[in-house]
Amino acid sequence: MPKRHRLFAAPALVLWFTMGASIAVAQYVGPGVIPRITVQELQSRGVHDQQGVLTGNLLTPEGGDFYVFDDGTGRLRVEIPKKVFPPSMPIAPQRVVELTGELAKEGRDLSFEVREMRVQQ
After folding, report:
1. C-alpha distances in angstroms, 34 versus 46, 54, 73, 87, 100?
2. Pick the CATH number of 39-119 from 3.20.20.150, 2.40.50.200, 1.20.1260.10, 3.40.50.300
3. Closest listed residue to residue 67, CA positions, set 55, 56, 75, 58
4. By its UniProt entry, which InterPro entries does this protein fall under (predicted)?
């Protein structure tokens, strides 16, 4: 292969692999993807340490890091450490939030331990 073809082929291959990888990552839905879930689903068939993403509203504080969360299918006690709250953004009950975390199930007591919060605009 002439030298000028090799100089063109290398960048073309890099570009081709880069574009292909970004498309594959954007469509990935296999293991490791945290599913969206409802309070009702967690209450009826949730298991300890089950991961999920909840979307709804924080209604009232219960003291410490605990709040009452409502997604329209039910209410659940959620634990949100202060470091998870977005800085300088008050969260009113009318504001929709997305909570990523896992279910803590001890006997009949359920709570959702939040590790990430996104505020929807």
Report:
1. 14, 10, 19, 24, 8
2. 2.40.50.200
3. 58
4. BOBF_sf, CarO-like
